Amino acid sequence: MIMILALIACGMTVNAQIMKKDTGKGQLKEQVAKFWDQTKKVAGDVASQIEAEFSTDNSGLRRIEGKYYMNIYDINLYKGGDAAGMLDLCRSQFAAKYPNVPITSCVIPQTDWVSETVETNGQVTGYTQTLFCYIIGKDGNAGYINAKFVFERSKAVGEEPVNNSQKWALWIRTDILTQHVYDRLKNNK
């Protein structure tokens, strides 16, 4: 943002100085107009890049060479009693879609369910809880497949959680990674 303001201020200053020196022949005025158009284009491009970086659609993703990828997760942090069953569900879906891709890791990188409050008419009526599972598969010698699954359950106040059958091992994203992209994600570069 500071860069954009600096470019605009620089352009205004140059524009004001050159306009005073205009000889009426038009060449200098055309050069200033061209410079100003280029400055506006660069400022617009920078603004678009900033917007893309902070977009909620790209939240939690890493940008590498102009494309967005999920992070690589290979450490399981969730120790709940239902962990083994959830990981098995994800593995079986992945194996059904990619039977020739060996799984190198299958993890839930959260320590616990992420909980959001559900309100009705200003009163707390329950909670929606979410866990994510990530699978990485080695795709021959060429690269990797990074898959993301979601588990969701709801809990009414004072009740036990109920699994959402629509989002119980729902496959929500797949990234196909070249070796180069995988290495950059793995090394956080």
User: Which shape, going by the Cα principal axes?
Assistant: flat
Strand content: 35-45%
Give the helix level as a range of percent.
25-40%
Strand-pairing-aware structural class = alpha+beta
- Overall mean confidence score, pLDDT: 81
Radius of gyration: 26 Å
Number of strands: 7
Give the biggest sheet. Answer: 5 strands, antiparallel
What is the end-to-end distance?
24 Å
Order of secondary-structure elements = HHEEHEEEEEH
Low-confidence stretches: 50-58
Number of helices: 4
Description:
The chain has helices spanning about 1-20, 25-55, 85-95, 180-185, and strands at about 60-65, 65-70, 105, 115-120, 125-140, 145-155, 160-180. It is of the alpha+beta class and about 190 residues long. The strands form two sheets. Strands 3, 4, 5, 6 and 7 form a five-stranded antiparallel β-sheet that branches. A two-stranded antiparallel sheet has the order 1-2. Helix 1 runs antiparallel to helix 2 (about 25-55). The longest helix has 28 residues, at about 25-55. The chain is flat. The two termini are about 25 Å apart.
Task: Provide the descriptors you would attach to this structure in a database record.
189 residues; alpha+beta; five-stranded antiparallel β-sheet; two-stranded antiparallel ribbon; 37% helix
Task: List the topology elements.
Layout: H1 2-20, H2 27-54, E1 61-64, E2 67-70, H3 83-97, E3 103-107, E4 114-120, E5 123-139, E6 143-156, E7 162-178, H4 179-186
Antiparallel strand pairs: 1-2, 3-5, 4-5, 5-6, 6-7
Helix pairs in contact: 1-2
